[in-house]
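Researcher: Can you fold this with zinc ion in place?
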Amino acid sequence: MRPLLPLLLSCTLLAAGPAGRPIRALIIDGQNNHAWQETTPVLKSILGASGRFTVDVATSPPHGADMSKFQPKFADYDVVVSNYNGDAWSTQAKVDFVSFVRNGGGYVSYHAADNAFPDWKEYQEMIGVGGWGERTTQKSGPAIRYRNGRIALDLTPARCGSHGSRLPFLITMRDLSSPIATGLPTVWMHAPDELYDTLCGPAQNVGVVATAHSDPANKGTGEDEPMLMTLRYGKGRIFHTTLGHDVAAMQCVGFIATLQRGVEWAATGLVTQSVPADFPGADKPSVRK
Ligand code: ZN
């Protein structure tokens, strides 16, 4: 019976990706104000567990080192997942990355990747909004709010990027037409995590897939802040998740499933994964240790 397992596995994979092959994903890390050495293996294992992806990792030189030889071969992949928040890339790496997405490559901005590259115009257009890095609404563009059932762009002068203490919070799915949202509960409880608020940027053509209410009692804004977003850049698709500060937050089944779905959507425009039976409801978080 031994030989059957690889056969079954390859059938699963063959059914998944573009042109009948696994989706090729590349995780970028190497510099971050977060523990990328701990979180990249979790990202890799989450994607691997879906049976949809092959996953490689490109690790940059450390902060302050020569970045000129960091030249990931983006074009060899269907989707790039960033766990990177650090030094500027070389001009060639930036040109290659923009060309990759513009020509239809998928990009996923995971948590602090939206803190990165505040001065890189094309990158900001891809992620739509970001935080920290001396971003302000005056300099970087409006903050996105979700008010009265629609996106509102808020130019009130503000520093961009903040969060309260890590607590569980409710996520509300807003764009039920997004393949990423299909079949998920409309409201679900996320495990303790940072709830990013007042993200700002070019904010063009942003689809807000999910929001969370930023509670003033936890240093929040009192606004519904975007948590999951989708964007287009050229022919490329971008999935932007603000969630997943640390390994504990990444054990949330809501994080796991929305990441798996978002990466598949960014790569192919489709989501073929079913909703896991342990997906959280509105009452309490559901985690996989
Ligand atoms: Zn964080």
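Model: Folded with zinc ion in place. The longest helix spans residues 253-268.
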